[in-house]
Amino acid sequence: MEGMLSESDRRLRALQSLYGKTFGELSAQLERDGVRPVHTRTLWRALYREGMTDWEGRTDLVPALRRWLEQWLESVSGGSGEAGVMRWEAVVHSADERTSKGVFRTRDGREVETVVMAYPGRRTACVSTQVGCAMGCVFCATGQMGFGRNLSAGEMVAQVLAAQGLGAEAGTQPGGAGLRNVVLMGMGEPLQNYEEVMRALEIVSDRGGVNVGPSRICVSTVGVVPGIVRMAEERRPYALAVSLHAAEDAERSALLPVNQRWPLAELLDACRRYSELTQKRIIFSWTLIEGRNDSAEHAQRLARLLRGMQAHVNLIRLNATGGFPGTSASDRAAEAFRAVVQEAGLPCTIRQYRGVDVAAGCGQLSTSRRSRSA
Ligand code: SAH
Ligand code: SF4
User: Fold this and answer.
1) What pTM, to 2 d.p., does this model score?
2) Distances (CA, A) of 244 to 13, 111, 167, 185
3) Is 80 exceeded by the pLDDT of residue 360?
4) Which one, of 214, 227, 159, 167, lies nearest residue 187 by Cα?
């Protein structure tokens, strides 16, 4: 395959293989190779502000930098590459054109999905962190497909750039207004891929580059306790969402097997520690399943569980997946649930329902044949 690539494709791949490096790492690499680190800023801007896909004809880049890029191309050509290439295989737009889903093909032939949600004047990218997921939550299509592998930081950065309309294959990605938010709510469990996720977020939030503000980046976890504590201890500046879905251990374990490993008491201790250390409010996600966790009593139990905490509750309607028979709570039940939570003094919102016609809703991402035909 490598031999069939055009020269410009090879250069594109070489640039993409830089996406996993933080500014500091890129600067150190240039310096090691005898290029003054002051040129890092130029390269960084070209990659992340302009979405440079080729340096051919870029006479504005100093010769030393262009020579370095040629050398870099030689050193990464032929090898398996790290992030290598990520390409939009297909992009589908929802009927209302507010939600788009890109299917990405990785260098080793895996597929992951990225969702872009458009709001007036801004966009949110919903990024995948793993191919599949090992956590096995029963109502989630990604969980139903099992675990493939972790994505590299570069593969996550590539998703963000594409969502922004930059990087490879301009014109095929969802275009439009500027990217404001990044949420790690695509395929995979971000805190099971901690190092690469944090590296990607450092790159994406760099002010001289993509520049998505850290507080506009949300890490969503099913409740990986060591990861939550680590984020707090390292003072990571991102927002944290914890997927709760039940406020009682037996109920939660039946939906989220991970609860057997880190039961509610431990999870809530980690959340309190997180708030203490970071002074930040945590978003608790609750997917409403009819007859399972949508009663007023469930809402009261949730409010009791979170009492005294700096919390925000985000209710999600259940989206259909092939492997789970449950259905979403009704709008009335969702409103009633919200009222109980709010009366208990906790801010509570119901997430907008979108992208479901193209299987881009929460929990619908999977790259089995079934959803590929969507
Ligand atoms: N692994 C992380 C992030 C990805 S899932 C996590 O679990 O938090 C993003 C959110 O979608 C989670 O809150 C998850 O519980 C929810 N979700 C999963 N399947 C869903 C479905 N079928 N309908 C609605 N929400 C779902
Ligand atoms: Fe994985 Fe999150 Fe889906 Fe659970 S809900 S299987 S943790 S992606």
Assistant:
1) 0.93
2) 40, 28, 36, 14
3) no
4) 159
CA dist 288 and 337 (Å) reads 9
Q: For residue 362, which ligand has an atom nearest its CA?
A: 1
Q: pLDDT digits over 30-89, tens only?
A: 999 999 989 999 999 999 999 898 999 999 999 999 999 999 999 887 654 444 556 677
- φ/ψ of residue 132, rounded to 5: 70, -165
Q: Which residues have C-beta within 8 Å of that of residue 271, sequence separation ≥ 6?
A: 228, 242, 282, 309
Quickly count: other Cβ atoms within 10 Å of residue 205's Cβ: 19
| Rounded Cα distance, 275 and 282, in Å | 7
Does the annotation mark 362 as catalytic? Answer: yes
Collapsing DSSP to helix, strand or coil, 46 comes out as: helix
Which tokens go with 224?
Answer: 């990986």
Beta strand 179-184 with 111-119: parallel, antiparallel or unpaired?
unpaired
Q: What does the alpha-carbon distance between residue 148 and residue 131 come to, in Å, rounded to a whole number?
A: 5
- Other beta carbons within 10 angstroms of residue 81's beta carbon come to 18
For the CA of 356, the nearest ligand: 1
- Exposed, middle or buried, 341 (CB in 10 Å: 0-12/13-18/19+)? buried
Ligand 2 atom 4: residue of nearest CA? 137
3-state SS assignment for residue 167: coil
**14 with 54: CB under 8 angstroms?**
no
How is residue 132 written in tokens?
């599949």
Please state, as a whole number, how many other Cβ atoms lie within 10 Å of the Cβ of residue 70.
Answer: 13
Q: How far, in Å, from the CA of 221 to the mean position of ligand 1?
A: 9
